Every structure is written in C-alpha cells, then in structure tokens.
Amino acid sequence: MSIELTKGERFNLSKETPNFSKIAIALGWQVSQKAQNCDIDASVFMLAADGRIPDEKYFVFYNNLTSPDGSVRHLGHSATGQIDGDDETVYVDLSKINSAIQEIVFVVTIHEGQEKNQSFSQVTNAFIRLYNRETLSELVRYNLNQIFSQETALEFGRLYKKNGEWRFQALGQGYNAGLQSFVDKYYVENAVEKSSKAGEKLDDAEVVRRFSDRVDRLLREEAIEETPIPVSSEAVEQPAATPVNADTVQSQEEEKINDAALKNLEPAISAEEFWKRYEDGERDFTGINLTGVDLSGKTIDSNVSLSQANLSSANLANAELTGVNLIGANLQGANLNSTNLLNADLIEVNLSGANLTKVILYSARLIQANLSLANLSQAKLDSANLTTANLSRANLTQANLPNVNLTGADLSQAKVTKVNLSGANLSGVNLTGVSLTGVNLQGVNLSGMNLSGVNLTGTNLSYAKLIGINLSGASLSGANCLGANLDGANLTGVNLIGVNLQSVNLSGQNLSGFNLSGANLYGANLSKADLSEANLCGANLSYANLEKTNLKEAKLVGANLDNAKLAGAIMPDGTIHE
To answer: Which H or E element spans position 165?
Structure first.
C-alpha cells in the first residue's frame, strides 16, 4: 500500500523495504491550456557530505543521463512512466550508489521560465512518487498541494543517507530561479563559467551545453590517466537559489565521510587490460569503466555482458558486437562508425551524441534508448525495436529503418531526409519540427497523426494508412500515394500537383477548388467527394469511382474519364449523371 507524504515528511526506505534496492522516482505534472509551450525538465544532483556534487558527472539530466557509478539513470525528456501521468522517470539502484554520495536531490525547472513569464502557477497536479521497479508497486507519493505564484523551479524531494539507511523526504520547495542557480548552489567548482561581464545571464540551454562540454572533456581526460573526483576542502562562496516560500526545508542529518571515499570509483582501464581479461576467458564486464577505450575493429563474443558499462567517448568503429549485452551502458559520444550490433541488447543505452554512421543494428533492442543528437546517417536498423526511444535532433539521413518499431519514440527536430521507414510502426511518434522529404513510408500506418504543415515532397506513401490524418498545409508535391487510404483525412491547403493518387481512397473528401491538373487518379475512389470548382485538366480519372461526386464547375478539359463510374455525379454544368 502506498504511503502519501506531506511537505517535510520522511520515509525510511532501508527499514520499510529492506529486501530490494532498485527503485524508480517518477515525476508528473499538468500544464494549463494557456501555457502549452511550457517546457519542464527534471534534473538530479548527487551530493557528497558537504552538500555539493563532487564531480560534473554527478549532475544527471537529459544530456547526461547516467551517473558514473551507474546508480542513477534518467530515462530522458519524455513520458516514460509506468502509469498515465508520469512525465519524467529516474531509475535508482541503492546498492550501486558510491559511498561518497550522501544525498540525491530531485529538481524540476521551467526552461526559460523567467524570460517567458511562466511559473508553477500554471502547473497543476504535480507529484513525485517512488515505486518498486521489479513489481511496479508504488511505495510512497507526495502530491504538491502548495500554491506557487512566481516560482520557476522546485526542489521536489530528496533521498538521503542517515546511519547507513536511505530515506526519502518530500520537499516541495519553490524558487524563483533557473538551472544556473542550482548549478551554482550544488557544484563547488562552479562548472558553468561565470562571465567577466557583470550581469550576463545564461539560458538553460547554454548552462546545459557548457556543463556537457566539461563532462565530455573530463571523460576524455580519465581515459588518459586516473583522475580522482575533485573535492574542495574549502567552501566556495557562490550565489545560490533563493527560496520563495518561507518554510524552507533544511536538514542537518548528513553523516560526515572521508575525502578518500570519493576515490572509490573504478578508474578507466586500458584496451590492453580489457583485452587480456577477455582472452583469459572473462565474459562478464558489467559496470566496467572503459571510458575512451579503443576497441576499433575488435570482435567480441555474443555472450559478453557490457551491461551498465561506461564506454563514453570510446572508439568502437568497425567492431563486431553481434548479440552483445549493452543494456544500460553509457556510450555517449562514442564512435560506432560501421560497427556491427546485429541483435544486440541496447535497452536504455545512452548513445547521445554518438557517431553511428553506417552502423548495423538489425533487430537490435533499443527500447528507451537515448539517441539524441546521434549521427545515424546510412545506419541499418531493419526490424529494430526503438519503442519510446529518444531520437530528438538525431541525424537519420539516408538511414534504413524498414519494419522498425518506433512506438512512442521522440523524433522531434530530427533529420530524416531520404530515410526508409517502409512498414515501420510510428504509433504515437513525436514528429514536431520534422521534414519528411523523400522518406519511404510505404505501407506505414499514420492514421490519426498530426502532420500539419509537414514537408512530404517526394515522399513514398504508397499503400499507407492515412485515415483521419491531419495534412492541412502539408506539401505533397511529387509524393507517391498509390493505394493510400485517406478516408477522413484533413487535406485543407494541401498541394496535390504532381502527386500520384492512383487507386487512392478519397471517398467523401472535400477537394473543392483543389488544383489536381495532370494528377494520376487512375482507379481512385472519389465517391461522394466534393470536387466543385476543382482543376482536373489533363487528370487521369480512368476507372475512377466518381459516383455521387460533386463536379459542379470543375475543369475537366483534357481529363481522361474512360471507364469512370459517374452514376449520380453532379457534372460541371450542374446536371446529374445517370
């Protein structure tokens, strides 16, 4: 039975649930209709006893999804929760948390909230809940009932360690601040450089970019030499986020630990050491640190486990990794050019920013994988499972994805020019800001989707299911819609010049005034459609079904109507064809 907490209350995880360590922290909220462009992000700060993150990599957010000890994994900027209402989810394995970490704070910020005049006053039904990842049963929930008027950030809750026991506390603390303030508050080295110009203000995207650059640089440095996590012995004075609410929740319960505990992380091993262990018969490399390792061209057996491994910035170009277990691995920024990952397990893997040019991912499992900003040009992903994967801003130019499962995937702002998506499952896919120019969507089910204003020039939509689709304002110039079902589709303002509409189903469609000159409508179903005042000059309508079609004042000069069915049709002169 789930326990509901109020602000400030605590729950002893170690005592109440002693037999398992794998938990999930899900956060959810609803945005008012007036603030639909409100962009909300969850971030995680893993703190040492001094209340600071000991290293950049212990700031976990949508561009650094996994902590270096593998204990915390952010599932990305998408609705990945187990029940309706979860907007962002973080997995935590208590058994893997580095002993230096004594507190984990969950922060939610509104991107550019202050600049856009947005605040949590426009957000309702916000909550944080903890559940058992194995049974999915909810353990504890905190519903945020406070009223916020100007706050743009919230410390939602925290996990903290006391007397060797992990506990959760509901915080609900609001701040009129952005992501920068929390970086300043929780990072002793001030990872985001301050400007020499007084008053310079960074937006959240720039904060994240600079922080990510430092993380990538540190990972590369660790590949060259062992680098202990830096901890400053002196407090550094920095501007911190200032609470708006009066009843700030604070705790003095943290245990003090030695700086030596911060050096317990396994240092990155060399390619030579890894290969020696591999040739000696070792096959379980779960959680190994291979940051920056060069395994290009190597062949690794399918029974090898690299689950939870840190392979960030590694060179795996042309490697043979068929069937290898890479579940939850960190491959951020890695080079996988032409790598063979046939049938590989890549569930929840972090491939953000990775080079996957010409990679072979036939039938690979990439469920909930993070591929944001990854280069997948000319990649081969036939029949791969990318359910709920994050492909935002990825480069998929000329990639081959026939029969791929993209259910619930995020393809916003991705480059998909000339991609082969024939037979793919695109149910629930986010295509915001995507151009589908030259894409092969043969046989794809796009029914009910919103493709308003999307560029579909030269796209292959033959035999696609487009029932009830919104194509208003879309460009279909030169598209192939052979045999497509457009029953109930919204075609307002669509350019159909040069589109192949052979055997297409346009029954009952409102095409009044449309320019269909020269269109191929051979065998098309246009029964009961409204084609009044339409330009059908030179169109091929042979064998088309025009029964009860409204053709009043339509232009049919040069149109081919051989063997067309015209029973009950209203002809251009207003007479009804018998």
So the answer is: strand 165-175
Question: Apex CA 447: angle with CA 442 and CA 452, to 5°?
Answer: 95
Distant-in-sequence, close-in-space partners of 291: CB < 8 Å, separation ≥ 6: 219, 220, 222, 223, 268, 310, 311, 312, 313, 314
Note the pLDDT of residue 32: 65
Residue that the structure tokens 């998909």 belong to? 416
Cα within 13 Å of Cα(46), Cβ side: 29
- The rounded mean pLDDT for the chain is 81
Torsion of CA 393, 395, 397, 403, to 10 degrees: -80
Note the pTM of the prediction, 2 decimals: 0.53
Element (H, E) at 513: none
In tens, the pLDDT along 343-380 reads 999 999 999 989 999 999 999 999 999 999 999 999 99
Q: Which stretch, 172-186, 216-230, 459-473, has highest mean pLDDT?
A: 459-473
Rg (CA), the chain: 28
Residue 46: enclosing H or E segment and its boundaries?
strand 40-47
pLDDT tens-place string over residues 405-457: 999 999 988 999 899 999 999 888 888 888 888 899 999 988 888 888 888 88
In Å, how far from its chain's centre is CA 68? 21
CA-to-CA distance for 298 and 264, rounded, in angstroms?
30
Strands 103-110 and 153-162: antiparallel
CA 224 vs CA 55, 297, 335, 488: distances in Å: 18, 21, 17, 60
Residue 124 is encoded by which pair of tokens?
């309702």
Residue 424 tokens read as: 């793919």
